[in-house]
Structure formats: C-alpha cells, structure tokens
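Morning!

This is the sequence you dropped in the shared folder:
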Amino acid sequence: MTGANQSGTADSGKPDDGAPVLRGAWSVLTANTLAFTVCFAAWTMYGVLITFLINNGVYDWDAGQLGWLIGIPVLTGALFRLPIGIATDKWGGRPVYTILLILCAIPMWAVSYCDSYAGFLIAGLGFGMTGTSFAVGIAFTSVWFPKRLQGTALGIFGAGNAGAALTLLGAPTLLGMLTDDGASMEGWRHLPKFYAVALLVTGILFWFATENKRPAGGATKTMKQRLEPLKHVRVWRFGLYYFFVFGGFVALAGWLVPYYVNVYALPVAMAGFLASFNTLPGGVVRAAGGWMSDKFGARSVMYWVFGICLVVCALLIVPRMDIFAPGSGVIAKSPGTVVSVAEDKVVVTAAKTGKERSYKLKKKEGELATEEERRTGVLVWPRGMSWHEPAVEAGDQIKPKQLLAKGHTHIFFQANVWIFTILSLVLGAVMGIGKAAVYKHIPDYFPDDVGVVGGIVGVLGGLGGFICPVIFGYLLKATGIWTTCWMFFFGITAICMIWMHIVVRRMTREHSPHLADHIEAPAVGSDPKLGEGGAGGRGSGDSGEGASS
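The structure's back. Tokens below.
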C-alpha cells in the first residue's frame, strides 16, 4: 500500500467530520428511498405472480423452471449495476434514475401480455433493470452527505428494500381481487399494469423532486480510471459478503412464498404475509445497520451478522419430517429355546440350567402425533417413540447375542411454522444490518468511486439474488428436501466469516504484531502497548488493511 488514496481511503483533503449537510440532501434522500422502494417492489413481483399462476394451474412449470423465473429479473438487475453506477458518476443520479424508472415501465406492462415460458423470461429480463436502481441510489445519496453521516444515509436509502415486503403483503391479496378468488384467472394480467404505472409516475415525480449532483471529477474520468478500483481484492471480498446478505435477501423474497405453500400447505396470500416477516425487517432495519456501522464499525457489525446467520441457518436446516429408523433391539444373553412370544415379552428356557428367562419388550402404544396436531401446526419440539417387534417364534433355538426383538424408532418434527417464521424474521433483520455494514466500507475506501465500486459490489449481490433461487430449485429437484436452501446459506456464510477473519488476523500481524497473539486485552496498566482497548478498537473495520487483502 503506497498511499491512502491508492487503497481507496478518503485522503483527499481535510477530514469532513464537521462538514455540513448540503441543502436539499434530505429531500434527495427521501426521493431516492421512495424510488428504490417502488423499484424493489417491482423487481420481486415474479416471486408472488409465478407462484400464483403455477398453484392455480395456469401454467405447468417444475421447481427448476420456477427458480429460473424468480431469478431472471434479478440477473438483469445484477449485470447492469456496474454500467448504471458508472453512468451515475458521469451524469448524476437525477437523469439516470428518471430514465431508468420510465423505461422499466415498458417491459413491466408487457408482462400482462405474456402467455409462454419464453415470454415471461424475456419480460423478466426487461423489468429486471429496476434492480439497478440500487447502484444509482447509492452513488446519488453518497455525494450529498459528509462521511460522518454516509452510513446512516445509505442505511436509510437501503430501507427501500422493504418494497419486497410490500409486494409480498399486497400482491397476493390484489391477485385474489383481480381474479375474483380464482373464478376469473385472466384477471392476473392487470397486476403488472399497476406496477408499470407506479414506475412511470415515480419517474416523473423523481425528476421534479430532485436536483442533480455528481462526484468531483466524475464527468472527466476515463473508463480506465473508473475501473481502477476493481483491481483491489477487497472490492471482491465485499462483493462476496453482499452476495449473501443482499443476494440471499432477494432470493428469499421470491423463494419463501413457494416454500410456505409447499412445506406448510398455506394459501398464497397467507404465504406472502408470513414471507414478509423476512423481507420487511430486512429492509427497515437497514437504516439501523447504517447507524450501527457508523458507531461501532462495519467490521464488528459484520462479525455479529455472520455469527447470528450461521446459528439461524443451522436451526433452519432441520426439515419437517417423519423418521422411521432402527432402534435398540433385545439380544439373547445365553443359548436356549423360545418358550413363548408376546407383545410385551419373550420367554426363553436356558439350555444348560433349564430355567426360564423373560425378556421384556416395549409395546407400541398410541400414535406419535394426531392428525389434528399435524394439521394445526402447534408442535414446537420433536416427538419420538420407540417399541419392539419380536424377531423369533416359539420353539426357535437361539444362540448367545441373537436378536430376539427388533427395535423401532419413530421421530416426528413439525418444524413449527411460527418458530420457522420467527427464525426467518431474525435472519432477514440481520441480513438488513449486514447490507448497510457492507456499503459503509465503500465511501470510506473509495470516496470518489462509489458508483463503480458500489456497482460491482451490487452486481455480485444481485447475482446472488439470481443464482440462489436457481440453485435452490436444482437442490430441491435433486434431493426433494426444501431445507437444502438453508444448507447452502450456511456454507456461504461460513466462507465469508472465515475469509474476513483471515484478513483481520493478517492485518493485525502486519500493522500491530504485538497484538496478534493476544486473545483479549490484558488488565489496564499491565502492558503500556496494549491498554484496555486491545485489538478491539472501533472504526469502519478495515482501515489498516492492505490493498490486496
């Protein structure tokens, strides 16, 4: 690292901790957040619409095709974030955002005329451009606020993710009204028209509610200069973090509706309502995540984010299931002849002594869970029962250690829908905090390249939103187990946390070798080099990290 500017930190002048907020900044932030909310609601529409069409027999598509349709709008929103971010740096957010909103209304309107799998794919690719709104909003918001408030401002803007929850809550009910609860299925074609009108109106309002602003030198940089920050591995590591916290969030916004419908046999409207428990806090809490990143440091926040996500995903991995497995059997202790066999015992006459020996058996009594309990979903903890089934008959000659009765075990785990929903809510909230923490790093390291760096990080996050539903679909198709999505998330989270920790350890060894081998800070005064703060000081979290880390 040859200088602060090269590593991407803000070293272009005096610290701006006391810099005033520009006039009009908060109105621009409000307009940005509103536009992002509308775009995000439109971006995640397919999760509800496609599930509704499949469940009502309008189209016969399998799990793999479902995953592609849910993910295809996310693909466009991911791939075009980088060029849209560059365009925002060059021309400013006002014209770029306005044009984006108006143009996206066209393919959204076209969805209402689709009648084939290919048609839905093409229309989804078109209106998926609404997903690039994030790159515009991040760049356009950051130029209006000083560094000390950028985490908070970007967190507030990111709360527009709650648009997904608005779709999950409102679209199923609206579809029911438009189709007269399934009596007139062609009524679904009005839903994308409502979204198209919302995009058009928002685009017009955005133009009149904002004024334009670009980063310093944004209009004069060459393409090579714009792409210069992408040589830093740090950018791609942030992208991996965002692949999970944002891509996973987007994936679940579409995937949880069919998840609830198939696993818990819920109607689409109820499934959308419960799915919103994941997406709504994930959007709203993002503002709190920005504040936390400003106050405690983004790296510290990310440690907590990954740790909690690992625990929640591990709990969600266990599927709803009935398990029938071999249990503990009854073994003969000595040779002899079977005298009698009953449900509760096997009597054996010993070969040497002639004495009778009784082996107790456990009878199967009742049922593990009644149909009412299975239907209402009230069970929280797993239930289990075991019993024996005789493996011999009267008159059989037996040997020592021969099996007299087979053991059977039955375990039923309901994966209680309300416990599942609470865990899903926690995961969504933590992902929302993580999204803000990831983007807190970007203006700290790359203050003059927020558009391009935020764009590529957004690309990777958006790709996560596209790839994850496709992977979920194929995992489900291969295993028949819905909880494979949580297994996948667990693996991704573990990789993110391990990579981050390796970088932190290397950074500590390079810049503070006397701290590297201390697990915690010693008592005050025991070492003048360490003090009470130890290695856990605050900050944005990576400020001493090498450019290649």
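Headline: Residues 295 and 352 are 81 Å apart (CA to CA).

More detail when I'm at my desk.
O.
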